Amino acid sequence: MKIYPYYPKPIKNKASIFTRYFKNRRSWLNSLYERSYTMKMGEFKVPLIDIYIVNEPDLIHRVMVTEVKFFPKHHLQHEMLKPVLGESIFTTNGKVWKKQRELLNPSFEMTRISHVFDLMQEASQDLLARLEKRNPNTYTDIDKEMTFVTADIIFRTILSKKLTLEEGEKIVKAFEIFQETSAKITMLKIFKIPKIFHSKKLESSYKESGNIIRQSLADIIQPRYDDSLNKNAYKDILSTLLKVIDEETAKPFSFQEILDQVAMLFLAGHETSASSLTWTLYLLALYPEHQESAYEEIIHACGKEKFSVQNIKELTFLTKIVKESLRLYPPVSFFPRETVEATTMRNKKLKKGSVVVVSPWLMHRNNRYWEDPHMFNPHRFDDPKSIHKHTYFPFGMGQRVCIGSAFAMQETLLLLASMIREYKLEVEPGFTPDIVGRLTTRSLNGLNVKFIKREGVS
Ligand code: HEM
Fold it and tell me: Could you tell me the keywords of this UniProt record (predicted)?
């Protein structure tokens, strides 16, 4: 019997606007119909705002690449993330975004160097030490572990600082609250629910959680910013940001600008990778035959030696597993854009200010382009030419494509290889993830996996 990895069962009947509202407040993935996966374009009308989902490769390419300037990132996403990210490249548009991206690119050039790989390796050793201390007979919530280790890697590579368990718990908790409250507040805004009906508690936990994250980062950045004579003392991403000079103004980034970009890199850089790692571990635990092939590949590439950048490049099957996991569970499940002028799509007239959503979750599971789309099958990626154009984009597409994709792939492969080499993974029998698609695709009830030490591993 075929085993399918979990995904929320599509709903059967056309739901009322209120049902959709309440389902969406929880997560949009729970309010999809079977047809949502195959439609070319969907329309979702709520009072005073038109929302369209484009789900056809050429339309997606139009929104993300050829006509990108007519479909900027949606202003509500910017507003929603502002308490943490300020004015950072994840949500800005136009000239501001262009300048920020140019200034950030050099920082990402430096992530390719081996120094960053060494820092990732140190964090992975600490992860293995934490796993070693667990009771081997119990299930581990890998979502928590992956969130911590990816946050730790971002701390080490951006700020040259190890994340302490206490600081990690504080920031992760704050971000959980921020994700939940910001999703609810955005739904209230989309449905134009007047402010007097917004709960004060909701608004204050949203702002407070944002402040906690920002303040923790500000406390680390401030002394480095003030110590301007010592800019070469570190080899991290913050040091490249501190040195960048804007050619137009001949000025460096201000403290607030640096804080905005660091906060954005911290969140964009760990939440997504944690989601990708968690879902990949779940899939490996669910499919022992693929897990064993990955293990053999790792042993063949590196034995029991310390991993090198070259070893990681040799893990071609594990790379296919990660790609397939990013297909089934894209960490960013939807990209919201807005129309800057009226336009036409598939004979539909879209007003200026309409919301246009591109969703890798839907396109990656569309049976027009993927055979048996809800099934886990890493061999789909054996022949890259067999993948239809513009149907696979876990890192986005066009000029707004993820700046950290190479960083993320290296980190994901290294952490997976380190864990699989030491442990066999088993998923908890009967466990069903409570999957939600908010800022990232996560399981609200965690994800329980048993780590069983492999024989012969000291
Ligand atoms: C598996 C891990 C990751 C996934 C799946 C992912 C996915 C994405 C996606 C889909 C976008 C585009 C969103 C849109 O068009 O609306 C994006 C943008 C971005 N990502 Fe990632 N990301 C990952 C890891 C990272 C890491 C590790 C970093 C940094 C350390 C990072 C930094 C960014 C930044 C700065 C942007 C905004 C780029 C721009 O708009 O110019 N991401 N990411």
Answer: Heme, Iron, Metal-binding, Monooxygenase, Oxidoreductase
